[in-house]
Amino acid sequence: MSARSAMPDMSGRVVGNGQYQLIQMLGSGSYGVVYRAVDLAWSYSSSSSKTSPRIAIKVLHKESLTPTATRRVRREVSAHREMSDHPNVVSMHDAFEDKENIYIVLDYCPGGDLFEKVVDEKMYFRNDDSAKSVFLQILDAVEACHRRRVYHRDLKPENILVSRDGSETYLTDFGLATCNQVSETFGCGSSYYMSPECIGKETVHVPYSNRASDIWALGVILVNIITSRSPWNKAMSTDPCFREYLSHENYLREMLPISEGAQKILRRIFVCEPTERITIPELRKAIINLDTFFMTNDEIAHATDNVRVAAAFCGLHIEPATSAVESAMADSKAAKHVAAAAPPRTPPMHFAETPEHVSLLATANVFVVGGLSEEASSYSSASDASSSDPESKGPVTPSQSVRELDLVVTEFQLQLSEPGAGFLPGSKGKGGVKLRGLGLLMDVPVVESESGSACSL
């Protein structure tokens, strides 16, 4: 049951000690609703802007939140706050609660998310300048996160908001973020964007690099941007497309209308050994120096049927050259698999119930969690989730999951500030988010990490 049906429509209600008015419901999920809102405390004298800032407020119903979901909210607020000053991260202005709900105040992005631009509008296909620009913005945001030891762990188009014209991007939804450089949380995130070591079903269960796993997800997002499709359903040998990729060096160009240069970059990202994976600075340099992401019309005409199907999906219909037809008839393997479609949107704002066998043991300000299983969340505008048979021609995005086995959970620092000490509406100043309320958003102990950066437990 969605929060829209469980919660009353709060449109028109004033919250936050009279500061915000909820105007219109934008979307809903299992445990909360997103509203377009206005800041009643805004005035011309307090800002250089002459127009009232556009804000959106996530309203999370406390009675619906499991302990797992409550921890997720704390993690999201603290991680998002840390990155809120970056120009390619959605600004967080405020976070507070009353007896019934938790409220998170963010910039309102009327352009929707990257998923819509990629899948519905196919905006970046055959548009090198736009594709390069938006991907470099995403790289900048993720690299900035990593520099501050914030590892997102759920990078996907639904968690990247965009401007109306699709030219600017803003990272959001830090519900799975961590400040731990390595993780023992296997199956964390959305399956189509998980690295093999994050999935953990075909690798040795040893701690893996969250930085390298984020980079793998960036590779899948790049494929989404330039082809409106995904390279495979899941990075496992049981997935026929991924299996072909592992055994066939030219697989990506036999499935997708991408240039040789783009394939070389993607093969540097999709390296199963995390320590050999390309770094973000290296990836940025490679993207900047790339002349084009796309095959020419002539290359598509001489390519496999799968490539032409993928191009036609984006509106480019190219007839096969005679030699290509003869080649396809001679090589049945070329038509063995069809490139995966871009995964449909995941259900927004959904948390799974915490199993009864979960145990929390507090020792020295560290929570040791055993057997935890939880659903990931997406707070973008709501849409129906779709599903299909895993053997179908294209993947869908299933429920995200986190399986934590004897995991040491480290929380981010939450710093309380006085009411009124927050951001000027629409600004990007770091450290101004107001965290206030009845105890959920509380101070937590802070320790110095080995790298010297503050990370609370």
From TrEMBL:
**Which protein are we looking at?**
non-specific serine/threonine protein kinase
Q: Which family does it belong to?
A: Belongs to the protein kinase superfamily.
The enzyme's first-digit EC class, named in words, is: transferase
* Compositionally skewed regions (Low complexity) per UniProt: 379-389
In this chain, the stretch annotated as Disordered covers 379-401
Keywords, A to Z, come to: ATP-binding, Kinase, Nucleotide-binding, Serine/threonine-protein kinase, Transferase
Q: For this protein, what is the EC number?
A: 2.7.11.1
PANTHER family for the chain: CALCIUM/CALMODULIN-DEPENDENT PROTEIN KINASE KINASE-RELATED, SERINE_THREONINE-PROTEIN KINASE CHK1
Residues in Protein kinase domain copies? 20-294
Q: Name the InterPro entries for this protein.
A: Kinase-like_dom_sf, Prot_kinase_dom, Protein_kinase_ATP_BS, Ser/Thr_kinase_AS
Top-level taxonomy? Eukaryota, Fungi, Dikarya, Basidiomycota, Agaricomycotina
Catalyzed reaction equations: L-seryl-[protein] + ATP = O-phospho-L-seryl-[protein] + ADP + H(+); L-threonyl-[protein] + ATP = O-phospho-L-threonyl-[protein] + ADP + H(+)
On the tree of life, the source organism's domain of life is Eukaryota
Q: Which organism is it from?
A: Phanerochaete carnosa (strain HHB-10118-sp) (White-rot fungus)
